[in-house]
Amino acid sequence: MNHFMDVLKGRRSIRKYDPEVKISREEMEEILTEASLAPSSLNLQPWRFLVIESPEAKAKLAPLAKFNQSQVQTSSAVIAVFADLQSHTYAEEIFTKSVELGIMPEEVKERQIQSISKIYSTLPEQINKELTLVDSGLVSMQLMLAAKAHGYDTNPIGGFEKDQIAEAFDMDKDRYVPIMLISIGKADEEGYQSYRLPVNTIAQWK
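RE: above sequence
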């Protein structure tokens, strides 16, 4: 618990990074793997990550994140988090692999697949979107905590051209909903401390 609190207290939103620090592909994959352990509705894991790290990709992102140029330019990478509105199409793969790994009985898999098929055959588009947005928010916070555990700093960015980013990076805008951008790297500034409301203000006991 104390280590976790240290991670939480040490995490601050950073707007300027050391541009000389680059996160390796291997370590970035570790961070994303740890982030993807977050919970999701029916374990469908609707989050999708676009790791924007090359100079060419950052140049493409820059005009879409006009008020966050320092993060884009100096970070090791900017991770665009998307929600996949067709995540249910991965159900067969997810549950079949679970059986192969011995963590789910075959009969449970069959029951889950049938249930998901039935749910998504009639699920309203808005409800589907709301579910994926919640799940993608969970993974985004876990990604930032995973990054901090690896010694890196992050900043969540909500101010960007959400209606343009999918197409800019050749993604289907009708399928992939942008959630946020997360810049990641080694801080070149301390970042600001911020006040948090006390628990008795934000919580109730009945």
